[in-house]
Here is the input.
Amino acid sequence: MLARSVKVELPRRVVVCYLLYSLVAILWLAVSAVFVTKSIVVRNMEDELLSYLQHASTLTALEIASQDDPQLQTLVERFSRERSLLFCAFVSNDNSYEAHSRKRLVGKTHDAENGITTRHGDIEAVRYTSGSLKIREYNASIHAPTGIAGRLIIAKAEPSTGEMTRMVTRHAFVVVCCPLLLVVLGCFTLHRLVSPMASVDSQLRQAAIAPTLADVELSPIKSRGPNVLGWNRIVREFQEENTQNSLDQRLGDAVRTLRQGKSDDILNSLPEGIAVSDQDGIITFANQSMAALLAADAQVDSLLGKSVEVGLGLNSEQASGLALFDPDRFARQVAEELERGDGEAKQVLRIARTPIRTSENATCAGQVWTVRDITQQKLADAMRDQFLDNATHELRTPLANIKAYAETLSMGDDLDVESQKEFCNTINVEATRLARFIDDLLSVSSMEAGSLTLHKQGVDLDRMFSEVVGKIKSQMDKKQLDFETIFPAKYPQTKLDKDKVNVALVNLLGNAAKYTPDGGRVRFEVKITDREIRIEVEDSGVGISEEELPRIYDKFFRSSNPSVQQVTGTGLGLSMAHEVIKLHNGDLTVQSALGEGTTFIATLPLE
Amino acid sequence: MFKHSKQGAINVISGTLPLSGDALELLEGAFDGCLSEGQPRAVLDLRSVPLIDSAGLERLLDLRDRFQKKMGDLKLAGANPLCDDILSVTGVASYFDVFPELSQAVGSFIE
Here is the structure.
């Protein structure tokens, strides 16, 4: 209702009211004018008729007194014409019309009319209605020398209301139009005076329906006058207060946004994936690392709205087997490792889930999830564990042998010289084995620290390869392997770290000897090209499975093949050989088939 | 030529070409494989890289940005004295973890 009334502005409403009352007043005045005019006209007519009757009575008395045959009929007709009377008559003492302006009534009896009778001295007045006419009739006695000669009667009809209206209408411009013009003029003046208040009225109505005053836009009025000045002052103060409030609010919003943005920046800078899920397990927040770790398109939006299981790429069966998704443990913190992918793409994720508890509500409001890629750490741990196993074995075996033979030597007084020599030789071999193992460990340590450096110098390749063959020949012979060596007729001059290349090649050939069954075949071939030395070590040994091939250069890696596990080893040889070849800017590649054999190809650039 | 290999879960990109001119496209191509991973972690082995020019430095920074966008990390290793000076003087070294040896760089990913 308020909204509907707002449609008509205040000035229009004021003008309409003003016009309505003014028009009613003008109408009232017009009607009053008609009746007042009629009253005046009737009064004037009465005075005029009374005066005329006295005059006519005198003339009639003179006519009767001066003439033997008075012409009363002529006289009454003259009187009737002069004053436009309804009629004029002379009634004799026997109450009959002796003369009458209506001739047909002469001689007829005069009947007194019933009406309101008043007297004005000798004149009697009767007011009566005949048909639609209201008639005023006056009669006066005519005095002759012989006495009363009769009565003179004059009658005239009062003007009707219609006649009065027509009379007034002739003056309508003065009576109605002038006031109307003045009213219209007043409308303009009133509209002009009230217009400034229209803006105030409109704004106050907005204030009435607005939910809060802060939502109201008050504006000053462009006009003059004390009320306008007062309004404008109120508006200014209101606007200043509103601006201050708005500034406070915007400042608060800005601070909140800044804090929120800062928190988001902090969370998005973390390398750990962080996500928040609601009570239904739906992800409501995820940082960029979480998206990078879990989402295929690395977009945070693609994680939001999904369940955590789906985000992790788990089906319901896989999820049900994890403590992370055990409903009974939702109120507790849980951490678990999850493996995803296969082969090189295999990923180990450490996922921790912590329930969110608000201070107001002790119940769980959701979960915070942290995800960390620990693949490299797990690989390093696995390699270290394997190394410890191997190292323990490698240390214990020669130490046990050395201890046993040393005890026998020290306690066995009756040992012959041959036996003593054999025992000492065994102790020497085991000590050498220990020393080699410790050398390998030191090399590995250097590799780990990155301090494995090369000392390149001019090398006699023919001599170097011969030394390598010499070192490995006994192992080949021991297993009765068909050891084939193919060397070029001539070697170029080049610079290498002879000792390290020597170690690398001994390791490659040593592996070939160790993992090739008795009576097998080993080929050691050296080729020289314009740019590089190409060294091939081929065996007909146990071979390497396709799954393990990518890992053979990892430190401490040893094949899970039982044939390999039977043979002692540290898992460092290939790693060292690979590292040495790479340090020479060369390359070490491998081709292998399980059960058929392996070929290592090392290339060393010529310098 | 730039080669992509893996040491554990860490990508290693190594090459013998200077980081300049057309070689940069080859460098970019070598990184494509590891950048397709969720949270890529890689080491650029600079042992055999003889030189880095301004375009190479710019490309290194671009690569770093691409790794950071995926919340991954790119580290540099084994820069020769000249490359090491170039990285230091231009301030590019301050944007990377730079290690003298590849193994140290790879090992630094184990937290």
User: Anything to note?
Assistant: The mean pLDDT of chain A is 84. The two ends of chain A are 100 Å apart (CA to CA).
